[in-house]
Amino acid sequence: MRNILFLLLIACCFFAGAQPSQSNPLQQKSLVLRRLLEQNHYLPLHWDDSASARLYDRWMELLDEEKLLFTNLEISPIVSYRTRLDEELMGKEWAFFNKTIQVYSRGLLRADSFIKQILARPLDFTKADDLNWPLANYPGNDTELYLTWQKYLKWKVLRAVSDMVMDTGTINISNTHQPANFPLLEVKARAQVQKQESGWIRNKLSALAQPGKEMEDNYLSAISWCYDPHTTYMSADTKTDVESELSGLEFAPGFEWMKMIKVNG
C-alpha cells in the first residue's frame, strides 16, 4: 500500500527571526511550514508567481469548489493576490487569508438566505432552465448568484422527486408527463433538499465558529498540497486523534509519520 506522508508542525514553534508579538500566528505557522518543507520535502518548491497561483487556486477551490458562494464582483479585489502569495510566505505581508474568510463568511450567510427564500414556496417547473454543472465560472453578481441557486435547487428537487418515483417501482419511461402526485412529491423533495443544503451551510459555519482553527489548518494543508498532493498538514491535536484511532487497530498499514520540529533560533 502506498505510504501517505503526514507532516506535523508543532504550533508553538516560530520561524527564526520572527517577532511573535507583531506577527500573525497563522503567518508564523506558515513561515515555519514553508521552511520545513523546503528543507525536508523530496520535491522542493520555489515560491514564485507560479507557486503563488497554485496556492491561490487550491484555496479558492477548497472554499467554494461548486462556485455557489462567491461572485466575480466581490472577489475582484482578491484576485491580485494570485501572484502575491509567495511574498506572504516570505514574511512581507499577510492579508489574503483574512480577506477570503470575510468573503467566505458573507457568502455562506447569503447562500443560507437564498436557500430559505427559494425553497419556501413551490418551484416553477413550467419553463425549461439551462444549468451547466459543474459551473465553470463564478456568477457575476448577487442577482446572477441568486438565479444560479434557483436553477441549482430546482435541479436538486427534480432529482429528489425522480428518486422517490424510482423507489416506488412504478416509473414508466415512455411517460413524459409529471406523476399525478407530483405536487405532493415536490413538497417532500423541497423539504429534503432544504434539510441537506441547510445542513451543508451549518457545517461550514461551524468551522468558522472555532476562532479559525479548522480553517487555519485547512490553509496550512493547502500550502503543503502545493508541494505534493499527498503531503498534508496535521496539527498536534489532529495527530493525537488519529494515533488514538489507529492504536485500536490490530493492523494499520500505509502510514508513515514524519515529525518536523523547529525551535527558536
Describe the structure.
With 265 residues, the chain is mainly α. 54% of the residues lie in helices and 6% in strands. It is built from 9 helices and 3 strands; from the N terminus they run βααααααααβαβ. The chain has helices spanning 25-40, 49-64, 72-75, 85-88, 96-118, 142-168, 182-208, 213-227, 236-247, and strands at 4-9, 231-234, 255-260. A 3-stranded parallel β-sheet has the order 2-1-3. Helix 1 (25-40) runs parallel beside helix 8, helix 2 crosses helix 8 (213-227) and helix 5 runs antiparallel to helix 7 (182-208).
The biggest beta sheet reads: 3 strands, parallel
H/E element string?
Answer: EHHHHHHHHEHE
Backbone structural class: mainly alpha
Question: What is the overall shape?
Answer: elongated
Unreliable parts: 1-21, 251-265
Q: What fraction, in percent, of the residue positions are helical?
A: 40-55%
Query: How many E strands?
Result: 3
In percent terms, what proportion of residues is strand? Answer: 5-15%
Instruction: Give me the Rg, rounded.
Output: 23 Å
Distance between the termini: 38 Å
Counted by DSSP, the helix tally is 9
* Chain-averaged pLDDT: 83
